[in-house]
Write a structure and sequence with these properties.
It comes from Gluconobacter vitians. This is Helix-turn-helix transcriptional regulator. The protein is built from six helices and two strands; from the N terminus they run H-H-H-H-H-E-H-E. With about 130 residues, it is mainly α. It has a two-stranded parallel ribbon with strand order 1-2. Strand 1 (about 80), helix 6 (about 85-95) and strand 2 form a beta-alpha-beta unit. The longest helix has 21 residues, at about 10-30.
């Protein structure tokens, strides 16, 4: 038994992740046992994760993201990314209006080192570089 009780915020997060996994799985493959088999986990393990009784590993999150065609952002934070699988994202958003749908092409870029769809405008010769 653990020496310290898990904070309620982490328990709530674990439940929310399980709920989102369940929502996405039900749209892609309604049979929970079949999904567990394809992921290489026991059906009872997937059931506990979806109920929020067990935290999924980072490896299972990656496998679920790939298998269910949703971003890890959706599974972990509840933020849908339209480019990951636009059809699934729209179906999930229609069934669960509490989800947030973000379009990558409209989101401002926060990291200038990452490539984007639109390049920075060229510098004019009279502009100073600081």
């Amino acid at each position: 038994m653990a020496k310290h009780k898990r904070p309620d915020s982490l328990t709530a997060l674990q439940r929310a992740i399980g709920t989102r996994i369940s929502w996405a799985r039900e749209l892609v493959m309604p049979n929970q046992s079949e999904c567990a088999r394809l992921l290489g986990v026991d059906a009872s393990t997937l059931n506990k994760i979806e109920r929020g009784d067990r935290a999924p590993s980072v490896f299972l999150i990656a496998a679920l993201s790939n298998r269910l065609r949703v971003s890890t952002d959706f599974l972990l934070k509840g933020v849908l990314n339209g480019r990951t699988d636009e059809e699934l994202a729209l179906r999930l958003a229609a069934l669960h209006p509490e989800l947030v749908l973000q379009r990558q092409d409209m989101a401002p870029s926060t990291d200038r080192n990452m490539s984007s769809d639109t390049p920075d405008p060229p510098k004019r010769p009279d502009e100073e570089i600081h």
